[in-house]
Known about the structure:
The chain has 11 helices and 15 strands. With 311 residues, it is α/β, with parallel strands linked by helices. The chain folds into 2 domains: 4-225, Rossmann fold; 229-291, 2-Layer Sandwich (Alpha-Beta Plaits), CATH 3.30.70. The strands form 3 sheets. The chain has a 6-stranded mixed β-sheet with strand order 7-8-9-4-10-11, sandwiched between helices. Strands 1, 2, 3, 5 and 6 form a 5-stranded antiparallel β-sheet that branches. The chain starts with a strand and ends in an 8-residue tail after the last helix. The mean pLDDT is 91. Bound molecules: adenosine-5'-triphosphate (ATP) and magnesium ion. Magnesium ion is lined by residues 44-45, 85, 162. Keywords: ATP-binding, Nucleotide-binding, Transport.
Amino acid sequence: MVELAIKTSQLTKRFGDQAAVDGIDLSVPKGSVFGFLGPNGSGKTTTIRMLLGLAEATEGTIELLGEEVPKRIEQILPKVGALVEGPAFYPFMSGRNNLLRIDAADRFADQKTTEARVESALNRVGLANAAKKKVHAYSLGMKQRLGLANALLKPRELLILDEPTNGLDPQGTREVRNLIRSLADEGITVFVSSHLLSEIEMLCSHVAVMSAGKIVAQGKIEDLRNEEPTRLILATDEADAAIDVLKSEGLGKSRIRGLQIITEVENDFDVAKLAAVLVSKNIPIREIRLEKPSLEEKFVKLTGEGFEVVR
Ligand SMILES: Nc1ncnc2c1ncn2[C@@H]1O[C@H](COP(=O)(O)OP(=O)(O)OP(=O)(O)O)[C@@H](O)[C@H]1O
Ligand SMILES: [Mg+2]
């Protein structure tokens, strides 16, 4: 049995008669970097707020690190670092002083090490140079970094991050991604939401895809990708002869796209062997390769909506 850092069962949140989160079963393995992917309004933040005990579930159950939420939330929270939409900082105080204040108010924190921990958290998120600046003069990206620093004030077993790269420039996005990777390497489970598939693909081992409050796919990213059939792409000027060869090799129906013949094949299809057969029959090959449909195609199919892709 895989140990789970987060487990929800039929978790539901209704606002009036709208179900913002609609019966979701999340299974987040310990040690994973788990992407929580979904378009705007699909219920990511609402879910995260329930996980952290910030909002009450209408129905369903939650376990964080094996403990019941909200019943045991006080015992669990010291082990969980969180970044949720719009963290509240005092604008008239510097970034450093905000963190010092938060740590001072944390009765689980060791006050003897406060300053060292604040400095190290500021360093990790690249805010050391702006630490003395007042927060009202911070850019959105700098506030986001301060939110991350806040999540990192203490050693954690689990990090729950709601769109941590929101408002960051490409450089900042890369830095946050690297930071998350290095935290994961230390063995911390990271649950991170995003509406950007490309980001989740680059960062995560697992994903749950949300659409209108429901999970429409969940699991290892690799497994989800492998569920999609592999395609053989063959470009030739002798399409008819080539299709005869494909049939004689036991392949199914083909589609034609310009000069390309496109056929579904097994994942372990031997493309070199097919190339040799085609050559032996004097069929000229302009292009021959295998292609996996991108995860984006799969998710568009599942959610019926496009995900923004950053390039
Ligand atoms: N306090 C609230 N009262 C009423 N409706 C709400 C409330 N909070 C969220 N909702 C609704 O619940 C749905 C899910 O919102 P949520 O913020 O969880 O989405 P999200 O996936 O985090 O979106 P985004 O990518 O824009 O951050 C939306 O339709 C939203 O309008
Ligand atoms: Mg949100």
